[in-house]
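User: Quick one: structure for sequence A, then sequence B.

Assistant: Sequence A:
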Amino acid sequence: MSTTAYGRLLRRTAGRREDGERCELCEAPVQGEHAHVVDARSAEVMCACRACALLFTPESDGHFLQVPDRRQRLTGLRPADLGVPVSLAFFVTRPDGSATAHYPSPLGATRWELDVPAWQAIAGRAGPLRTMRPMVEALLVNGVRGATECWVVPIDDCYRLVALVRREWSGLSGGDQVWAKIEQYFAQLDDTRSRPG
């Protein structure tokens, strides 16, 4: 996701526009929970009205990809298995099979390229990772405060988490509030839309 797209999502999370949110494809108003699409050329996440979102699929080869709503908790995979140096990260694949790790921080998301064979070895151990849709879904891992959670989630969920960390972080260690908000974020993922994997 580009800095521009991240900035737009951060502004959306922090507060609504006076005239309400609009579809970034046709400018129609969008209300409350709404669809998102990813611009496959720039990797930007964009708000979309229902009509525009229905024009695209998560698997299409076109310019825009619809962001799906699958939230699936994984079992048998631990954050430590991924070999990342932080306790909170998400992993996004590209159509060519490569993957990047992103770490939420007070400055935004730090990005790191993963070794393709290492990622493929991890994906081979978890069926839902083999079906994860490039650019629009991510593996989200949480090892904060002893948690051991791994999820397949829509990419927009990951950037909401990035915005939360950036907005709530204080001091050198983040402060108690940011960690409580992160715990709350993961508790909300664990709803009726999730399925064990």
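Sequence B:
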Amino acid sequence: MKKISLAFAFMGIVGGSSHAQEIKFEEYDLPNGLHVILHQDHTAPVVVTSVMYHVGAKDEQPDRTGFAHFFEHLLFEGTKNIDRGEWFKIVSSNGGKNNANTSDDRTYYYEVFPSNNLQTGLWMESERMLHPIINQIGVDTQNEVVKEEKRLRIDNQPYGNILKAVKQNMFKNHPYRWTTIGEMEHLDAAKLDEFLAFFDKFYVPNNAVLVVAGDFQTDQAKKWIAEYFSEVKKGAPVVKKQYEEAPITKEIHASWEDPNVQIPMVITAYRTPSMKTREARVLDMISSILSGGKSSRLYKKLVDTEKKALEVAALNFSQEDYGTYLIYALPVGETPTQDLVDGISSEIKRLQTDLISEREYQKLLNQFENQFVNANSNVEGVAHSLATYYQLYGDVNLINTEIDIYRSITREEIRDAAKKYLNDNQRLVLQYEPEKTSTK
């Protein structure tokens, strides 16, 4: 779980220093299946209202990718009681802010208001769920918005298509093989009825969790939640399809050309288990050992000592069904990228052979303690964690206990996870290169 630059910067976690405190919460279900989590924190007059739907890019069809991300935008268009274009005006005029984000596994919407506007936040999220306006005008408008986002953040961004290049080689059956933003021709081809059907299937109370976190009174919050959300009808049960990938047993070689880059990059990628597993958390720790700052193993070897790399980083990209472990490096000058691959392999083999030192182990535990606490250092972070632990992990109390899992991981487990998942015959080696100039 490392903060890295370039195409993966958005996946970073910022470290801090503090001590974990128990986060108290209450949870219950409405008759329509909406799960509700309440967390009181009176330290500041702020309240967060958020809804996480268990729908992401993996719930799309291969010829209709990008739907979940599209709905992240579309559901701000307006509702029966919120005119088109008024959503953000209502939020800002009430002293609030709001946003949304989508992954392969879920979609998350949230508002942050002064605590005296809790009712407004709950009303707005119920409006989004109960009767949004989904029409051709909104679809056409947001189609252009998404296209512009893709142009700016991916197509015209150096190294912007790394994740796409990796995913399409790592997965053959699972929908993780496509990107969250999807393909624009799929959105262009989709009819209005398809968008309406997607909403009716996934954006239902029994596929969602509502979190209220911050400065509020529980009895009043429950009253408003019942008033605004009980009217929403329960949807049909959302059955998640299961996909299984055959193990990678032979090194995969692939390449990708990018007109926006001048320096080539090499990526090694390994398929890893679900983020819900203990081993996924062990791999998080391995990422820190390999690339957690300038004192990390890969940085010291390839950047400082051998001066072969401009930059190197490792990331355990954990997801609900599978994970992808990525290591990337940028060469110095004319350094062959194979030298970087060999350097990565040698450091992994060292992890597979020798236990990390006690000093390195204690430093690692301190890093994860800081990261865990920092992620829940304000009500926005707490609200997101509560929703995630419920929706993707099925255990809300992980907000208090997951750090104990990290603390209990041993040096032997770190060695064994590296031996199990990070072998040369289990990886993709991707050459991400500048676009070659064609000659006639």
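The chain is about 40% helix and 20% strand. Residues 251 and 424 are 6 Å apart (CA to CA).

User: Thanks, that's what I needed.
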